[in-house]
């Protein structure tokens, strides 16, 4: 490994090292040369686990990342910072700048960073000699976790439920859920929805609406059929409002009863009660109720993906509770581990027809994540953070509605609890027949950048990336909500009026 003396002098302007946001990597140093910059002053201040005693700045880490990590990396292209430390709702970058974190590990950090309840559980588990992972062997930690998780579920659902732990990601659990219902029904088609996001593995990607990441990948899981989600703002039927979601229901019901639809009897229907990555689109409760009726009448297992909405995010422990329905299969990840990697599928026992070993995976038994997940769930329930999430979400929505009134760039504010999105539009374009202007991803990106420069981390989602997303942790306070809204106001103003 060779020290590349030029690396310290690498300068984006000189085009020597890289171009963030562009696939090209122009460097005079080969990757191997860059690999370990042993001679640099920064390497000498590193304590060996990346905890840099003396600050090296964002540029250094971003250049390293661009040189070494995959071209598929995504967040750093829009949020070009290197995070040094984090606490609560805040993160601090390696330049010493502090940000309010409304990305929160894409919703996984439900109690923010390093919450005392989570830290205590983690330290306690380590001190108690808890094994770090146990495949699917049981432990007292696991038993406590399962008991707590089942207690957090509607009693009727929990009473006849089984749980399957999966590999640690949401996509892993989606894969398991699909295998489960295919096995139980002996059928092969799966129904999913326009705008859905279920992950990036071959099966989960096949079930995801966004076409972009699918284009390059041949041979995704077959027999997936997409149905119209009730997206009122850009209604697939051009109707909007109640007429729009009723049309979606009518279409789905007729399609399922049509022997000429081309779709064999489905093994399951998969949906998010609030589409997250798809642009923060809550399904109306009445629509969900009708979907539950339609699936039940036709013996189609209803799989609700609560990877992002679960554990208090939307103002209830589970988003399906707003509609008063019960799923047949519930998919959980992100918040369920209290910020550590964990995922599970919880389903009606009648579906438990797969054979021993039908679904396996080394990292199904993450005991530390079960300990932190138990602590997080307990804290959320004891402190009523699900209700708090609802109240704080309403407060932020009220701010955003006010900002929307004075802005031509903000087309719609929507969400549920602390899962909120603002769709950014091009008001110079031509509105559709519902009066909605075209999506404006560039302007959404500029708003995100202006927020970042003012100390607020937000993510983009939605069709063409035109929805600015707010996912603060459930511990966010009123004054922090007001601060988030104030920064967002300034950022929108800067983009629209150049102030
Ligand atoms: N389902 C939903 C609803 C999600 O939001 C996500 C991740 N954003 C996933 C599945 C996939 O989770 P993971 O990234 O952990 O694979």
Structure description:
It is a single chain. 47% of the residues are buried. With 499 residues, the chain is of the alpha/beta class. The chain has a 7-stranded mixed β-sheet. 35% of the residues lie in helices and 15% in strands. The chain is globular and about 60 Å long. 4'-deoxy-4'-aminopyridoxal-5'-phosphate binds next to helix 8.
What can be said about this structure in brief?
Helices cover 35% and strands 15% of the residues. The chain is built from 15 helices and 17 strands. It has a seven-stranded mixed β-sheet with strand order 4-12-11-10-7-5-6. Strands 1-2-3-15 form a four-stranded mixed β-sheet. Strands 13-14-17-16 form a four-stranded antiparallel β-sheet, with helices on one face.
* Poorly predicted sequence stretches spanning 5 or more consecutive residues: 1-44
Shape: globular
Query: What portion of residues belong to β-strands?
Result: 5-15%
| Termini separation | 49 Å
Average pLDDT confidence is 91
Which small-molecule species are bound to the chains here?
4'-deoxy-4'-aminopyridoxal-5'-phosphate
Q: How many β-strand runs?
A: 17
Largest sheet data: 7 strands, mixed
Helix count, per DSSP?
Answer: 15
Q: What percent of residues adopt helix (DSSP H or I)?
A: 25-40%
SS-based class:
alpha/beta
